[in-house]
């Protein structure tokens, strides 16, 4: 699976740095700030967060694990929706802190969030305005967070401000997060397509040749202008994949420390979302080190197998981690859908190109113990090509990357010596491809697309990516 997938997966993992409790929340649509709001109106959410930490008259006591002692109180949606003290305390807090919010927005918040944020939950037994009307005298008793709430009370300003800041900052961070995710993703899609359309503009031939030579095509010798598009396209995905893996590991370590310090690790680590998150993090941690060049060269077929298998496991783990933890409340799963769609589209395009090109017969020449030369008649190309060999193995889906050494003209050509060819291919072919034969010296670089026959050289150690050569 491409490194771009890990970029999208890491976006999802990075999004999950929030308070963790397994959720059966109502389903959201699209993304945060793009169809999904988190804590608006923030003043009302801060009131509920401040009050909901106190047990109510209808709360039930929970037994502590492994003992007969009573644990903390548990308050369900039905209790929140019907408890008079809770409803009136919440209504009074909202009336004093949300004076600039219209009544219809407060009523919507009341109906959707008083009982909780579950997919299925009861409506409050009375509206916001009716609950507020029952508070005939301003309350005077101060509610201490965590103490039982059995009468209409006031919340302290410090407690309310603390919850307000947490809610507002969290939403700002998530809004910014989604915005820049979209900017990065859409830039990677729109900008290349936009630049590709420039080729249809009838530019002068000499400008096209010079721009291709200095921007797109790498040099035949050296690397003096090999630091632009080619350099970025080669290095960026690799380092993004490493950064994403580091983010996932840090994310896991942070929550491991949080739950270990609070004494909840033994119970929380048994939750499905925790297990699948650990699987995804472990898969990413295994995938990158096992994708280094020496392993790909020596165990290329094995690399293809475990690369696809572990990548699929990572994507599955990320999706189930989000699904068990948040449901579809915040739209984090959208990024998993995008990653899988990109991967599926790339695979379908490979299949379409394979069908379009059809089957070809090649002439294979053994140069020595390390190198083969494959001549394919009737096609032209440059850069690199992925070749399938359906008659050599039962694994017909496997392909191997070959560097396109040159396109050969019917006219006489000049070839480099075997020694220089071996020395060049023995170097890091992924970064420094060489041209092993050239056509007539007066050949224009753009004429490469008009040749009728290509010569392809393959090292005895397969590689996964070769920059374009001319």
From TrEMBL:
One Pfam family per UniProt: Ferric_reduct
MF (Gene Ontology): ferric-chelate reductase activity
Subcellular locations according to the entry: Membrane
Key word Iron-sulfur present: no
UniProt record, GO biological process: copper ion import; intracellular iron ion homeostasis; iron ion transport
Signal peptide residues on this chain, from the entry's feature table: 1-20
Taxonomic superkingdom: Eukaryota
Keywords carried by this UniProt record: Ion transport, Membrane, Signal, Transmembrane, Transmembrane helix, Transport
GO cellular component: plasma membrane
Membrane topology designation: Multi-pass membrane protein
Domain Ferric oxidoreductase: 236-317
Transmembrane region(s): 182-201, 273-295, 302-322, 334-352
Identification of the protein by name: Ferric oxidoreductase domain-containing protein
Organism this protein belongs to: Mytilinidion resinicola
């Amino acid at each position: 699976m491409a490194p771009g997938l890990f970029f999208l997966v890491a976006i999802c993992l990075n999004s999950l740095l929030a308070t963790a409790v397994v959720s059966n929340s109502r389903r959201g649509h699209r993304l945060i700030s793009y169809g999904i709001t988190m804590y608006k109106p923030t003043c009302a959410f801060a009131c509920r967060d401040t009050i909901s930490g106190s047990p109510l008259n209808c709360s039930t006591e929970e037994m502590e694990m492994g003992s007969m002692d009573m644990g903390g109180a548990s308050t369900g949606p039905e209790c929140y929706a019907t408890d008079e003290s809770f409803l009136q305390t919440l209504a009074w807090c909202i009336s004093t802190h949300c004076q600039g919010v219209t009544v219809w927005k407060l009523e919507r918040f009341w109906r959707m969030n008083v009982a909780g944020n579950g997919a299925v939950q009861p409506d409050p037994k009375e509206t916001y305005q009716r609950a507020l009307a029952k508070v005939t005298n301003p309350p005077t008793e101060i509610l201490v967070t965590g103490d039982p709430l059995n009468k209409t009370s006031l919340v302290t300003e410090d407690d309310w401000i603390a919850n307000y800041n947490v809610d507002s900052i969290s939403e700002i961070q998530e809004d910014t997060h989604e915005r820049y995710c979209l900017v990065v993703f859409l830039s990677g899609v729109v900008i290349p397509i936009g630049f590709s359309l420039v080729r249809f503009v009838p530019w002068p031939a000499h400008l096209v040749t010079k721009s291709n030579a200095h921007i797109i095509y790498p040099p035949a010798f050296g690397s003096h202008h090999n630091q632009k598009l080619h350099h970025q396209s080669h290095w960026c995905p690799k380092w993004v994949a490493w950064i994403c893996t580091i983010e996932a590991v840090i994310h896991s370590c942070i929550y491991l420390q949080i739950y270990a310090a609070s004494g909840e690790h033994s119970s929380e680590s048994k939750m499905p979302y925790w297990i699948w998150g650990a699987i995804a993090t472990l898969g990413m941690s295994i995938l990158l080190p096992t994708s280094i060049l020496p392993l790909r060269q020596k165990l290329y077929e094995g690399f293809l197998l475990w690369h696809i298998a572990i990548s699929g496991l990572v994507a599955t783990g990320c999706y189930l981690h989000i699904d068990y933890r948040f449901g579809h409340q915040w739209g984090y799963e959208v990024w998993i859908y995008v990653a899988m769609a990109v991967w599926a589209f790339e695979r379908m395009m490979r299949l379409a190109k394979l069908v379009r090109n059809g089957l070809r017969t090649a002439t294979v020449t053994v140069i020595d113990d390390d190198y083969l030369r494959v001549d394919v008649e009737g096609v032209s190309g440059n850069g690199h090509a992925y070749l399938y060999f359906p008659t050599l193995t039962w694994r017909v889906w496997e392909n191997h990357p070959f560097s396109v050494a040159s396109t050969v003209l019917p006219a006489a050509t000049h070839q480099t010596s075997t020694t220089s060819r071996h020395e060049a291919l023995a170097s890091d072919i992924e970064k420094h491809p060489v041209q092993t034969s050239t056509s007539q010296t007066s050949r224009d670089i753009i004429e490469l697309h008009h040749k009728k026959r290509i010569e392809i050289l393959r090292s005895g150690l397969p590689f996964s990516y070769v920059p374009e050569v001319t």
